[in-house]
Amino acid sequence: MNSIAFKIVQPDDQQSLKLIAGWYFSEWQIPAEHTQERLMTMVAGKIPFQVLLLLNGTPVATGGIYEHVGLLDHVPHLKIYKNWLALVYTLPSERGRGYGAALCNYIHGHCRNLGLEKIHLFTHTAEALYTRLGWMALERMVMGNRNIVVMEKALFR
Question: Which of 69, 95, 123, 142 is most open to solvent, judged by the fewest CB atoms within 10 Å of its CB?
Fold first, then answer.
């Protein structure tokens, strides 16, 4: 039986920072130095934060909550929305097994514990997943060849 655990990444955890930076570079070509610098600015118990999902002690997925995402640079009116779930990544060999959903549910709970009322995201690939997890579409837009949906999750109902 598989054991799932979650770990809030600390800014001095160089091993985790390098791992996440490598994943983000391989998936989205985000320069590793950029990811590491961003993650090193995190402060325990506050936003932004990054989570690792561990399967039998081995990291297999990550994601976090951020105050700023790149979409805001292109669509400034979206700055009214705060606290963005972003960069949710699962190892390709582990996709389709529910780890992304488990990670998101953990992040939702952590956000509630921090007192956040709502969180936001944008996606062009996983709207069905987020809808299943209780997210609501707020806006739709086309950017390049991508149909993007901006979504919101109310954490207290």
Answer: 142
Q: Supply the pTM of this predicted model.
A: 0.91
Euclidean distance between CA atoms 45 and 66, whole angstroms: 13
Count Cβ atoms within 10 A of the Cβ of residue 133 and give its class: 0-12 exposed, 13-18 middle, 19 or more buried: middle
State the CB neighbour count (10 A cutoff) for residue 72.
Answer: 16
Sign of CA pseudo-dihedral 97, 134, 126, 70: negative
pLDDT for position 2: 84
Residue 92 has pLDDT above 80, yes or no: yes
Q: Which domains does the chain have, with CATH numbers?
A: 4-154 (3.40.630.30)
Distance CA 31, CA 29 (A): 6
